[in-house]
Amino acid sequence: MSFVCLKHVSVEFPIYQGSSRSLKKVLLAHSSRGNLARDARDRINVRALNDVSFDLHSGDRFALVGPNGAGKTTLLKVLAGVFEPTRGQILSSGRVTSLLDTGVGLNPDATGHENIILRGMYMGIHPRQMATHAPAIAEFTELNDYLDMPVRTYSAGMMIRLAFAISTYIPPDILIMDEWLTAGDAQFLEKAQRRIENFVRGSSILTLASHSTELVERWCNRGILLHHGRVLSIGSIKEVISAYRRLIDPDAQQAPPQMAAVG
User: Alpha-carbon distance 204 to 222, whole Å?
Assistant: First the structure.
């Protein structure tokens, strides 16, 4: 059974050489909305996340919502194991697939075929198991003989095709996405969209960060609203989207009713 549990998670990033008086220090103080702290060595620490807690279970489709600088990407990287919490604890069960950067794990000097195996190892899949999936992955890329060539010879679009085909072949237990994934040129895009939709449906737990309220309302049933690293709302996706809209446009909730026209 897949699950994710965050208990009072905070993440801080130290700013070295930040203890001296400087313009940088002044700007940080005005732009961080109080998310600054000092440690025992008098270094400045920026709190990217502050006391975040929630539980996810099989079937949850969880949206991370908030304006720029809210802490969404930091939280995704905590869930993916890229960042360790400064305080608090994260517990999880299930194989995690992160689509934060599909190009990670590709070796430019290896061929496309070799990179299918290498990327699988990066994803925690044994080479023998990955070899059984390699023909289907190769067919999906439509790269044909180019798969026998080093990846450094690929165009950007060809590299995206290869990375996308590998990353989205085996549905994970826990899927982590930063915005909706698209891949390659217009000819490839329609097939890629069908692939990512099936990939999302096949996951046990989805965590999706996006600025698109339409997207998260379509795919998610729960959500969290972050603002400067703090939790403002957590609950059903409709509740969280409503809170987000009030945050970005508070006057919209207070608009007076329109008077009926007098004939």
Answer: 14
C-alpha torsion 99→104→107→113, nearest 10: -10
Residue 187, C-beta contacts closer than 8 angstroms, at least 6 positions apart: none
Please write the tens of the pLDDT for every residue from 65-85: 999 999 999 999 999 999 999
Residue 106 DSSP SS3: coil
Integer Cα distance of 207 and 210 in angstroms: 10
- CA 135 – CA 66 distance, rounded (Å): 41
pTM of the model: 0.79
Two structure tokens written together for 132? 């059984």
> Which segments of the chain does DSSP mark as H helices, in order?
23-31, 72-80, 112-122, 127-141, 156-167, 186-202, 213-219, 237-248
Distance from C-alpha of 125 to C-alpha of 117, rounded to nearest angstrom:
9
Q: Name the 3-class secondary structure at 211.
A: coil
